Inverse folding.
């Protein structure tokens, strides 16, 4: 999984925003022009691109978007000692949680149910084992420690009550790394829309959400890079009022033999091994972020079947043999080849 904000950089190179064709739209006074700013946040680089009438309007909007992202990081980080999720992991309970933490956890539980437990934010204790060097141990010790850690998992065990959120067993921990960036991209777009922005794109370390299209009516174009050669693209997608996210195992490994990576199967506690990349397109950044992880863990056969049975979701899956699998409705998002 894309667990923990410090792991988000592993996904950035998979989705490259195409910036050609900026365009202008005429209006009665100042024309719309394109503005863009990149800042470091949530352990990655986040870019806000938008069309506004002048630098002052653009600056106000961009500031609002990044402030919204800052608020979400303050709720969701498991590394910042002042963040809510960090304190929840340390104390096992947090009173009067923010709306963002509550919503992130409620969505995570909902998506855990949707995916049959392939997305599980309580897998953090298992992830920490691999980060600490479990891959150096014998298979017998690995299995013993993983089995013990799995006793501390289960998204359905999280207690979300009116005035608190708690983890019922000592040692349970959550990670919101598989959902927080997509959620942040969604919320940043809402902040922009509230200010009056109608055309915008937020790229949160490779989790990309689009507000409308470009002013001339053309879609935002996003390229999916070839995992084996990032100078080449596998596909290009046209986005308007939707989101895209990619999970891949080809950059973040714990061991030099590249057998243990950060995309863990919550059912087994071991790294998933059937895919190298999964790209999801759907209406919600939080959902696309989540499903990119879950479908990767499912594998190409089960994952593609799941996507084709789920309304409003499309996918491109690259398996270990470099075979590309496309969901039944993906073609409507794919840009024509040059």
């Amino acid at each position: 999984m894309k667990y923990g904000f410090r792991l988000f950089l592993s996904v950035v190179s998979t989705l490259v925003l195409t910036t050609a064709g900026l365009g202008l739209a005429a209006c009665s006074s100042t024309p719309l022009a394109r503005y863009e700013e990149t800042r470091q946040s949530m352990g990655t680089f986040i870019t806000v691109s938008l069309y506004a009438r002048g630098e002052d309007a653009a600056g106000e909007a961009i500031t609002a978007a990044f402030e919204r992202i800052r608020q979400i990081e303050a709720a969701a980080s498991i590394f910042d000692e002042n963040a809510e999720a960090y304190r929840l992991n340390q104390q096992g309970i947090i009173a009067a949680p923010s709306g963002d933490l509550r919503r992130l956890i409620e969505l995570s539980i909902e998506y855990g149910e949707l995916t049959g437990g392939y997305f599980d934010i309580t897998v953090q204790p298992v992830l920490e084992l691999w980060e600490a060097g479990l891959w150096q141990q014998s298979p017998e010790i690995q299995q013993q420690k993983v089995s013990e850690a799995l006793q501390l998992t289960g998204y359905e065990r999280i207690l979300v009550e009116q005035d608190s959120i708690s983890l019922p067993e000592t040692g349970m921990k959550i990670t919101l790394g598989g959902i927080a960036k997509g959620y942040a991209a969604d919320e940043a777009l809402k902040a922009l829309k509230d200010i009056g922005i109608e055309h915008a794109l937020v790229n949160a370390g490779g989790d990309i959400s689009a507000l409308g299209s470009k002013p001339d009516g053309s879609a935002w174009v996003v390229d999916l890079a070839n995992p084996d050669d990032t100078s080449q693209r596998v596909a290009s997608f046209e986005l308007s009022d939707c989101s895209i996210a990619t999970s891949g195992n080809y950059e973040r490994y714990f061991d030099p033999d590249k057998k243990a990576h950060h995309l863990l199967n919550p059912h087994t506690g071991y790294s998933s091994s059937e895919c190298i990349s999964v790209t999801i397109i759907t209406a919600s950044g939080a959902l696309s972020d989540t499903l990119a992880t879950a479908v990767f863990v499912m594998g190409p056969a089960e994952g593609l079947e799941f996507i084709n049975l789920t309304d409003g979701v499309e996918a491109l899956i690259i398996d270990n043999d470099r075979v590309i699998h496309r969901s039944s409705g993906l073609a409507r998002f794919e840009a024509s080849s040059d």
Summary: The chain is about 30% helix and 25% strand. Confidence is low (pLDDT under 50) at residues 1-28. The two ends are 34 Å apart (CA to CA).
